[in-house]
Amino acid sequence: MNVFKDFKKWSDQNEGHIEILTPAGKTTAINKFKPSASEDKIKELSDYFSTSLPPDYINFLQLCNGASLFGDPEYGGENFLYSAQDVIHYNEASDSKIAVANILDDRVLIDLDRWRSHDEHYLLLCESLYSREHTGRFYSNFETWLEHFIISQGSKFWYWQTERSFEEK
Question: What is the pTM of this model?
């Protein structure tokens, strides 16, 4: 969580306002962080799903209990990392795939079954038009996904495509 800690510290220095580079040029974005979750809130979340949650996600909640990232200073944003209370609100206790963020209508899910089976790549993507049964894999954990999201300055890096060709010699 070092990248996230540094990002939060940088954002907090100017009341959440940061300058980022986008395809349209340099612009200002605003980040809003909620205060850290109490141990009671984290326990309530684990109890709600009757399982422990991944430690990197718990670390996030201990640093801030939800956030809005890379928003427009005037109009707000659409990148929400849920608080413990929001996770309970947006998910059923019986869900095995729990929504923990909404990024411009894409939902980021923790697959509890993958997590319980010790799969380090437990994070899933659910595009806005689809139900939780139709997900794609990030091949990532929460911390790595969050670091990539920050480094990409709020871009949906998971849709970036690259084409590589190698010439034979």
Answer: 0.90
